[in-house]
Description:
Radius of gyration: 14 Å
Oligomer: single chain
Amino acid sequence: MDQKKKVLFLCTGNSCRSQIAEAIVNDRMADIWQAVSAGTQPAGYIHPNALLVLREIGIDHRGFSKSVDDFRDIEFDLVVTVCDDAAETCPMWLGRGKKVHMGFIDPAKAVGSEEEVLVVFRSVRDQILEKIPQLLRENES
Length: 141
């Protein structure tokens, strides 16, 4: 069997979007892809709402917040920045691998009631669930 393709999801804090992407890929596409995530300024935790919305779709993610520096020497097939360009500066990846930007709003910045905030987390999760697997399928060959 061929070796799995490697994808790195990058953002600033590595507590929400990149973690959700990592968890979805490792759960739903593990036959072809191995995903990791990292941040330029790791928050040091995964946002509880990110874990909650993953559990809602049957994914029990047990990752942790990691620094991009931990992966500098690893060769990735694909590096995906998931920051929202309009609101943030996406981190630069200085290592190897095809670079793609796919921006998602930061659900950690959502305000309102607990339910209103969860709506934003679910929306971002659902966007990642739709767009990231499609992107990876396009990059399998």
